[in-house]
Amino acid sequence: MSGAKKSNPPYHYFHPWIGRLCLCLALLFTGQTAAHAQTSILKTDSGYVLLRNGQPYYVKGVGGTVNLPLAVAIGANSIRTWGIEDAERILDEAHRLGLSVMLGFWLQHERHGFDYNDTVKVNRQYRHFCAAIDRFKNHPALLIWGIGNELDLQYSNPRCWDAVQQIAAYAHKVDPNHPTSTVTAGLDSMEVVHIRNRAPDIDLLGINTYGDIKGVPANIRRFGWHGPYMITEWGPNGYWESPVTPWKAAIEQSSTEKKQVYLERYDRYIGPEKAQCVGSYAFLWGAKQEYTETWFGLFSKDNLPTEPIDALEYVFTGRWPSKPAPSVNGIQFDCQQRIHPQHFLAGDAFTAVVKTDSLEKKNPGYRYHWRILAESTDKKSGGDAELAAAEIRGTVRNPTRKSIQGRMPMNPGAYRLFLQVTANGKVAYQNLPFMVIERKPEDGQARWMEFKKQGMEDRDE
Question: Which 8-state DSSP code applies to residue 285?
Answer without folding.
Answer: S
